[in-house]
Amino acid sequence: MLHRFTNNTLRLVRFALRRERIMTPVWLFSLIGITLMVPLVFRDMYGDAADRVGMALTMNNPAMIALCGPIYGTADYTVGAMIANEMILFTLLAVAIMNIFLVIRHTRRDEERGRIEVIRSLPVGRLSNLAATMFVALLINIVLALFSGLGLAALQIESMNFTGSMLYGVVLGVTGLFFSALAAFFAQLTENPRSAASFSMAALGVLYMMRAAGDIGSETLARLSPMGLILRTEVYVRNLWWPVPIVLLISMVIMALAFYLNAIRDMGQGFLQAKPGRKHASALLLAPGGLMLRLLGGTIIGWLVGSLALGISYGSIMGDLEAFLDNDMLKQILPAKPGFSLTELFITMLMSVMAITATIPCLNAALKLHSEEKRNHMEHLASRAVSRTGMMMSSFIISVISSFMMLFAAVLGLWSSSAVTMVTPVAFSSLWKAMMVYLPAVWVMIGFTFLLVGVLPKWTNLSWIYLVLSFFVIYFGRIMQLPEWTGKLSPFGYIPQLPLDEINYTTLAILTLVAIVLAIVGFIGYRRRDLQG
User: Which of 227, 230, 190 is nearest to 212 (CA)?
Assistant: First the structure.
């Protein structure tokens, strides 16, 4: 029985680590970097105890508790308590997503592409691939826990002692292990990677909502969710370790169940049978646009819900915004514009962040054509009476329409939520203009992505790097006091900040023209180049 796990498993581990030599370091560098950067920013922002007390009052309301988790240590609201209350849950969400994608990538997706079948034809154990994947996930989460904990301790912030810092890191690592086990379980239940990822992300959403509902009204319900349970560690406040072994035990049980299901199921099959498709394709699927919409429909709907939720979450704090922004450091970060309220200043910064976030699904839609090409799915279409221009145009139109839909969902959520929490709500028309003015910048990002797909398909990841760079120079530029010209490295840096600035239609027209030119060059390149295998 043991040989099913151990036969050439270490070789598969080395192979998996080699495949992850780029993706995983980027994830780890981002997670650890943000984890270590935020405490330094908070230390400078909230050096005064009165500022921290004001933040504690702002956080201690049902909306913020549902969003960030239970608020601990308000009697003496230190920087450590602020980090734990305001950052740890969002970091856990990112850690969960990283682990879900990691496990699905090396299990169900490899199985769909026939890689596991090739591996199984070699002298390896039946469970060796899953064992190697879980071992890699364990290593990655250990690295995340150690570097996060030791890094936080090395900051030598008074309220962030060594014990609390290591507990912070362990909380991240254990949560990562839980979601890696959960993803491995759903990879056995489903028949394809998209379903496995969808079930895993849905489980993440359900556990998050259970935690939110429980934190507001039911301690028992909150503890039934591993995300709620792990927050009971009260990092940097009481430093309780007892939830850690419980979540770890749950993870081991789920992992054992995943191994059992993997041992008894057939290759390429799942225990949840996929719904049989139609005998004949619908009229929508007979055109490239319909096919692309079918492939992207679920993702777009998911991101629409996410954009709406993001707007609602920001709108929920608008009622306490004056107290939240009553801080000298925060005032320095916001634009210096006399005659405008702090709420108006904050909205300008908020819109840029929400617009950059809304760009993610647009780029995903733009890159879908290339991802299908790498999976050899485009050769079948290209061999028929379907033009490459038509295939690319369908993806382009969906990306552009998605940009409008995502920005609209974000501003709708922001307005609807702020209208409830604010005594004098901001007019919807003002929020609409402030958000929609970012459309040309989003289009430039889409055009750049299509340029890469058409001309430099091996470098399509540059679109994500450029988006991250844009977020860094726009959001962290003022915090880190970067030169003003760095903002111009991103198309978002050219957008007027309404209502502070006047709309410069010439600049917006130039950005739109740049987006069109980039897309046209991409179209021409895609028509002329060979399809990749």
Answer: 227
